[in-house]
Predict the structure.
Amino acid sequence: MDEFNTTYPRTASQVVVRQNTLIRQVYAWMGAGLALTAFMSLVTLSSPAMLNAVLGNKLVFYGLMFGELALVFTLAGAINRLSATTATLIFIAYSALNGITLSSVALVYTSSSITSTFVITGGMFGAMSVFGFMTKRDLTSWGSFLFMGLIGVVIASVVNMFVGSSAVSWFISGIGVIVFTGLTAYDTWKIKAMAAQGIEGRKPAILGALTLYLDFINLFLMLLRFTGNRR
């Protein structure tokens, strides 16, 4: 079994070095994932044939969505059994597929509102991530609370797909903003805690990147419902 690389730093300075190293790796991979997602969205939007193939056929669109979910669950659930190369390829494939499906957002909202919301998301995400990394508090208790909130958002979103209530959609988005803002801080703190335990290597960096990538994308989509101007 291919496990995470684990060492046990003995001094405070070694812990700080490992934390800074892992966080840098996480953000480098996360940034690469976001860049690939944006690139694939632009590629899809610039190709009428590709756009029609993906968004003009619900079977293809939902097939890609389920494929994304499968990649996320595979990476998160089997990370210890995967090689570092395989984990990296799964993250890259997920980021690319997500870019293709997220191209639909540009057909609903104006480019200016998407850009401004992205900037707002970046500011909120950055602030909460800095808090999660710098805080001396133990954020363990946040985990169960935020997880319950996440499950509630998912269930409510599925139900609202059939109900189609705009009021419920706004309520879900409001709760979602709170949940994913909190998860950004919690997940950053958790990555920092992993490094303090001596966990290092590309696989934990990829897993951390996926976690924060999901926080960022979901926070962006929730905020877009409030700040986005529809075409």
